[in-house]
Backbone:
């Protein structure tokens, strides 16, 4: 159920930005979602519809973009991106001994408003 907490955070960020920029209505929120964030967009959309009722973000479209997964391989030293969630391995040497640098975050990238 961590989608609800993440959704409330997304809404809070959008409403704060809307207030700071004196917008009338928030129409779209662009969200970068890491492959390993554990969030399911369909649940975020569902919870957002409930949480945003009566706010300037009610009815806003949520657009999800994939955050690249960056790793540093401990075996070969390569800095790489990986694209498969299941059994991630270094694309250079095939090792599963790596440190994830990026790929689990949830970020509000931009907001479109009137």
Residues:
């Amino acid at each position: 159920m961590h989608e609800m907490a993440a959704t409330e955070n997304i809404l809070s960020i959008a409403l704060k930005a809307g207030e700071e920029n004196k917008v009338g209505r928030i129409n779209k929120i662009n969200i970068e979602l890491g492959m390993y964030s554990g969030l399911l967009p369909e649940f975020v959309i569902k919870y957002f519809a409930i949480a945003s009722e009566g706010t300037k973000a009610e009815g806003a479209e949520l657009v999800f973009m994939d955050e690249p997964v960056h790793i540093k391989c401990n075996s070969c030293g390569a800095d790489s991106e990986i694209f498969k969630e299941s059994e991630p391995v270094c694309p250079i040497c095939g090792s599963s001994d790596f440190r994830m640098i990026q790929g689990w975050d949830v970020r509000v990238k931009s907001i479109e408003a009137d």
User: Anything to note?
Assistant: Helices lie at 2-20, 41-51. The chain has two helices and six strands. Residues 2-113 form a domain with the hypothetical protein PF0899 fold fold (CATH 3.30.2320.80).
